[in-house]
Amino acid sequence: MNKRTAIQLPAAWLDELNDQSALVTDPDGRAAVLCEMAYAAHRRCEIDSGELSEMLEFAEAAREWALLEHEEAFHIGLFQYESAAEWERDEPGRIVVGGAPERG
Protein backbone atom coordinates (compact mmCIF):
# COMPACT_ATOMS: atom_id res chain seq x y z
CA MET A 1 0.00 0.00 0.00
CA ASN A 2 1.36 3.40 -1.03
CA LYS A 3 1.07 6.14 1.56
CA ARG A 4 1.25 9.66 0.26
CA THR A 5 3.15 12.06 2.47
CA ALA A 6 1.88 15.54 3.19
CA ILE A 7 3.01 18.23 0.79
CA GLN A 8 5.49 20.72 2.23
CA LEU A 9 4.85 23.92 0.25
CA PRO A 10 7.15 26.96 0.45
CA ALA A 11 6.12 29.32 3.26
CA ALA A 12 6.39 32.46 1.11
CA TRP A 13 4.07 30.93 -1.47
CA LEU A 14 1.55 29.95 1.22
CA ASP A 15 1.66 33.51 2.59
CA GLU A 16 0.77 34.82 -0.87
CA LEU A 17 -1.97 32.23 -1.28
CA ASN A 18 -3.50 33.23 2.07
CA ASP A 19 -3.49 36.99 1.31
CA GLN A 20 -7.21 37.16 0.63
CA SER A 21 -7.34 40.96 0.30
CA ALA A 22 -4.74 40.97 -2.45
CA LEU A 23 -6.50 38.09 -4.22
CA VAL A 24 -9.87 39.85 -4.23
CA THR A 25 -8.32 43.13 -5.33
CA ASP A 26 -6.47 41.60 -8.30
CA PRO A 27 -7.46 37.96 -8.90
CA ASP A 28 -5.65 37.52 -12.21
CA GLY A 29 -2.51 39.35 -11.14
CA ARG A 30 -2.17 37.51 -7.86
CA ALA A 31 -2.77 34.14 -9.54
CA ALA A 32 -0.01 35.00 -12.01
CA VAL A 33 2.32 35.80 -9.10
CA LEU A 34 1.45 32.49 -7.41
CA CYS A 35 2.15 30.57 -10.63
CA GLU A 36 5.47 32.32 -11.17
CA MET A 37 6.49 31.63 -7.55
CA ALA A 38 5.56 27.95 -8.02
CA TYR A 39 7.64 27.65 -11.19
CA ALA A 40 10.57 29.40 -9.47
CA ALA A 41 10.39 26.97 -6.52
CA HIS A 42 10.41 24.08 -9.00
CA ARG A 43 13.43 25.49 -10.84
CA ARG A 44 15.25 25.75 -7.49
CA CYS A 45 14.32 22.09 -6.80
CA GLU A 46 12.39 23.06 -3.64
CA ILE A 47 9.36 21.14 -4.93
CA ASP A 48 8.88 18.23 -7.31
CA SER A 49 6.65 18.09 -10.38
CA GLY A 50 3.71 16.74 -8.40
CA GLU A 51 3.89 19.58 -5.91
CA LEU A 52 4.21 22.07 -8.76
CA SER A 53 1.02 20.69 -10.27
CA GLU A 54 -0.76 20.99 -6.92
CA MET A 55 0.43 24.57 -6.46
CA LEU A 56 -0.77 25.57 -9.92
CA GLU A 57 -4.16 24.03 -9.19
CA PHE A 58 -4.34 25.92 -5.87
CA ALA A 59 -3.45 29.16 -7.69
CA GLU A 60 -6.28 28.67 -10.19
CA ALA A 61 -8.73 27.76 -7.42
CA ALA A 62 -7.70 30.89 -5.50
CA ARG A 63 -8.24 33.01 -8.63
CA GLU A 64 -11.71 31.57 -9.16
CA TRP A 65 -12.58 32.09 -5.47
CA ALA A 66 -11.39 35.70 -5.64
CA LEU A 67 -13.42 36.40 -8.78
CA LEU A 68 -16.55 35.10 -7.05
CA GLU A 69 -15.81 37.17 -3.93
CA HIS A 70 -15.29 40.27 -6.07
CA GLU A 71 -18.56 39.64 -7.90
CA GLU A 72 -20.42 39.18 -4.61
CA ALA A 73 -18.94 42.38 -3.17
CA PHE A 74 -20.08 44.30 -6.26
CA HIS A 75 -23.54 42.72 -6.05
CA ILE A 76 -24.11 43.78 -2.42
CA GLY A 77 -22.92 47.30 -3.15
CA LEU A 78 -19.42 47.40 -1.68
CA PHE A 79 -18.17 48.70 -5.02
CA GLN A 80 -19.90 51.58 -6.70
CA TYR A 81 -18.84 52.93 -10.05
CA GLU A 82 -19.74 56.49 -10.93
CA SER A 83 -18.40 58.76 -13.59
CA ALA A 84 -16.51 61.86 -12.53
CA ALA A 85 -19.26 63.99 -14.08
CA GLU A 86 -21.91 62.41 -11.84
CA TRP A 87 -20.16 63.03 -8.53
CA GLU A 88 -18.51 66.34 -9.43
CA ARG A 89 -21.98 67.76 -10.08
CA ASP A 90 -23.16 67.03 -6.50
CA GLU A 91 -19.97 67.04 -4.43
CA PRO A 92 -16.91 68.56 -6.08
CA GLY A 93 -13.71 66.75 -5.06
CA ARG A 94 -15.50 63.70 -3.65
CA ILE A 95 -13.74 60.36 -4.09
CA VAL A 96 -16.12 57.41 -4.41
CA VAL A 97 -14.73 54.12 -3.10
CA GLY A 98 -17.89 52.21 -2.23
CA GLY A 99 -21.43 52.40 -1.08
CA ALA A 100 -23.87 50.84 1.31
CA PRO A 101 -26.02 48.01 0.00
CA GLU A 102 -29.44 49.12 -1.16
CA ARG A 103 -32.30 47.95 1.01
CA GLY A 104 -35.32 46.73 -0.91
Structure overview:
The protein is mainly alpha-helical. Helices cover 62% and strands 0% of the residues. It has five helices and no strands. It has helices spanning 11-17, 20-25, 27-43, 49-75, 84-90. Helix 3 (27-43) runs antiparallel to helix 4. The longest helix is centred in the middle third of the chain and has 27 residues, at 49-75.
SSE map:
Blueprint: H1 11-17, H2 20-25, H3 27-43, H4 49-75, H5 84-90
Helix pairs in contact: 3-4
List the defining traits of the structure above:
104 residues, 62% helix, elongated, mainly alpha
Low-confidence stretches: none
The helix-strand sequence is HHHHH
The whole-angstrom Rg is 20 Å
Query: What structural category arises from helix and sheet content?
Result: mainly alpha
Give the N-terminus to C-terminus distance in angstroms: 59 Å
Total number of beta strands? 0
What is the count of DSSP helices, taking H or I runs of 4+ residues?
5
Q: What sort of overall outline do the alpha carbons produce when their principal axes are compared?
A: elongated
Helix percentage: 55-70%
What does the main sheet amount to? Answer: none
The overall average pLDDT, rounded, is 81
Strand residue content: under 5%
